[in-house]
Design brief:
28% strand, Elongation Factor Tu (Ef-tu), domain 3, 227 residues, 7-stranded antiparallel sheet, alpha+beta, 2 domains
């Protein structure tokens, strides 16, 4: 890793200070519910970052000063940034250990407690939003037959919104026509038919209105508005 820039707070590691490796990762918190008969239900509760650790050697004429600066950062308990390659975290130095061998040669090792992992937080937001989109589309699909709307997908939400708007307009006109027919019905059979048509149209209009809410929210989330 000698050609990789590593920084911790205001300290940019250089020469022998740059670690040969950086240990990072973590776990996913889970709740496991054992079921009768051998099955299980597993709930993912969120990521749990492990400590990040690495080691190196302060060398040269300023080795002591740089070791003291890092130890002071550990003692202060301040939240600092840790970055290397494309990785970025905010951390607190949980442990810093140095072996003073010579004024110009001080091996060290440290462990950092992760305060925030922006990449994981973004991934979590994306996953949550994807779940919301899927749930809204699933709810809209249930209403689609009654609404008279065809296939629905995340990629075709704009077309679905257009179809819903057209359906609402058509249903509104049809409902008005049924009302006028009922008011002017010359006989009972015509009136009954008008009522039946009005009921059917009202149901379709209600389904279209319900779909509109789900589809509009899904479209907004797809666009990144995260409603």
């Amino acid at each position: 890793m000698s050609n990789v820039a590593v920084t911790l707070g205001a300290i940019a590691f250089q020469d022998f200070e740059v670690p040969e490796k950086i240990v990072f990762g973590g776990a996913q918190r889970v709740a496991v519910h054992e079921l009768i008969g051998g099955g299980r239900v597993v709930d993912a509760l969120g990521y749990d970052d492990a400590e990040i650790s690495f080691a190196g050697v302060f060398s040269g004429g300023n080795a002591v000063a740089r070791a003291q600066a890092l130890d002071a950062m550990r003692a202060s308990g301040e939240v600092v940034s840790l970055a290397w390659d494309s990785y970025f975290y905010t951390v607190i130095i949980a442990q810093f250990v140095a072996d003073y061998e010579k004024p110009w040669w001080i091996p060290f090792a440290l462990r950092c407690l992760v305060v925030a992992d922006p990449a994981a937080e973004i991934a979590n937001i994306v996953a949550t939003t994807a779940s919301l989109i899927s749930a809204d589309i699933a709810a809209a699909v249930l209403l689609a037959p009654q609404a008279g709307i065809g296939a629905i997908s995340a990629a075709g939400l704009a077309a679905t919104q257009t179809s819903i708007a057209a359906g609402i307009s058509t249903s509104g006109i049809a409902l008005g026509t049924s009302g006028a027919t009922l008011a002017a019905a010359p006989d009972a059979l015509t009136g009954i038919a008008a009522v039946g048509q009005a009921v059917q149209t009202s149901g379709q209009l209600a389904a279209l209105a319900g779909m509109s809410g789900y589809v509009n929210r899904a479209a907004a989330n797809v666009a990144g508005e995260f409603l």
